[in-house]
Amino acid sequence: MSQTNGAVLVLSGPSGAGKSSLIKKIEHDIGSYYFSISTTTRPMRKGETDGVEYYFVDEAEFKKDIEEDMFLEYALVHGNYYGTSLKPVKQALEEGKLVLFDIDVQGNSAITNRLGDITTSVFISPPTLSELKNRLTNRSTDTQEVIERRLKMARLEIQRVSEYDFLIINDSLETAAKQLLQIAHVARLKKPLDQINDFVYKWENLEN
Amino acid sequence: MSQTNGAVLVLSGPSGAGKSSLIKKIEHDIGSYYFSISTTTRPMRKGETDGVEYYFVDEAEFKKDIEEDMFLEYALVHGNYYGTSLKPVKQALEEGKLVLFDIDVQGNSAITNRLGDITTSVFISPPTLSELKNRLTNRSTDTQEVIERRLKMARLEIQRVSEYDFLIINDSLETAAKQLLQIAHVARLKKPLDQINDFVYKWENLEN
């Protein structure tokens, strides 16, 4: 059995938890990985590039892909579709890569259902709601209305922390990054169920 | 929330898989730990010491402890009782230690049921049945009859590998020890459910 099978690392947590900073901090140390890019029907914003922030498609195309079961998971949020296409994930896994997801609790639940045997999930949280409020206000990229919506969403998401394998409280970026890196290394040790079954079969039937 | 809560690391695998050698190799690097010692009614053998290999008790005492719910798990094997007393495990967890178990698949199942939120389980396997046969024969501590029984047990246990979080194939001791050490570090990041709930509660209600 190969020691370098692909595996999945799901990161969830409120906008403002520091997921992007954490990923940036560890990405050079986690080995070969693929960062999953979602597909969406929401309009491209100024400064965004197709294939970087998202794959931008129209609703007809998205619905066709739903019908053809091309999504690992998808959801309708505020009138826009968001989804994860199966094909690049499968390819990355076959290449033995660690597939990283930055996805919400619904998305984690869907991915764990489909790929549970090779999935490790981490919820990244700011230490407190007031700290999150500060961070969102200080980065001043969002309107007050958007901040309020993000805080409301954060309160709902944090209720489901126990669905995750790990909770990282991002109080110190250094400590949080070290923990996430350790988890990422160990995530790669998860073996797909078909490899496990293959191993069990061979264990009894070959070389004896 | 403390970063140094206790956690559980279960190691299973056939006699001859190399669990003891692996533990010896990593024990100085895993930080503060407690190696769980089982209690048994089987007679003490020459060279064994009470409180080292096992806590040796008589059947009356064992049955009294069963009645008083003092065991995390117990089983009757070949006419002898074996069990894990709850008390030292609870104490070690409260001291923030990593509690190591060398236990069979039944034991793992019982521990996971009771302490699943803080338990990481690892099945350690020799690469093949013939390799296991060689190892057991070469160490020449067991009679042919005992070896046959161990091999039969190994074939049954390996069928349940998929119940474990990780499978380590102990082909190279160096590689296997490195993997186990990584898993042991990450096992400590698992937080008990009551701490998670406490965090969620405080997150919303304090400092805001």
Mean pLDDT of chain A: 92
Judged by helices, strands and strand pairing, the structural class of chain A is alpha/beta
CATH topology of the domain at 7-36 and 97-205 in chain A: Rossmann fold
**Beta-strand level of the residues of chain A, as a percent range?**
15-25%
Strand ordering within the main sheet of chain A: 2-7-1-8-9
The beta-strand count of chain A equals 9
Query: Biggest interface and which pair forms it?
Result: A-B, 39 and 39 residues
End-to-end distance of chain A:
17 Å
Enumerate how many helices of chain A there are, as a single number: 8
Unreliable residue stretches of chain A: none
Radius of gyration of chain A over alpha carbons?
Answer: 18 Å
Characterize the overall form of chain A.
globular
Record keyword descriptors for this entry.
homodimer; 208 residues; alpha/beta; Rossmann fold; 8 helices; 44% helix
Question: What's the helix and strand layout?
Answer:
The structure is a homodimer of 208-residue chains.
Chain A: E1 7-12, H1 19-26, E2 33-35, E3 39-40, E4 55-56, H2 59-67, E5 71-77, E6 80-85, H3 86-94, E7 98-102, H4 105-115, E8 119-125, H5 129-139, H6 144-158, E9 166-169, H7 173-187, H8 193-205
Parallel strand pairs in A: 1-7, 1-8, 2-7, 3-4, 8-9
Antiparallel strand pairs in A: 3-6, 5-6
Helix pairs in contact in A: 1-7, 5-6
Structural description of this entry:
Two copies of one chain form a homodimer. The first copy, chain A, has 208 residues and is α/β, with parallel strands linked by helices. The first copy, chain A, has a domain at 7-36 and 97-205: Rossmann fold (3-Layer(aba) Sandwich). Chain A contains eight helices and nine strands. A five-stranded parallel beta sheet of chain A has the order 2-7-1-8-9, with helices on both faces. A four-stranded mixed beta sheet of chain A has the order 4-3-6-5. In chain A, helix 5 packs antiparallel against helix 6. The longest helix of chain A is centred in the C-terminal third of the chain and has 15 residues, at 144-158. The radius of gyration of chain A is 18 Å and the shape is globular. The interface between A and B is large, with 39 and 39 residues.
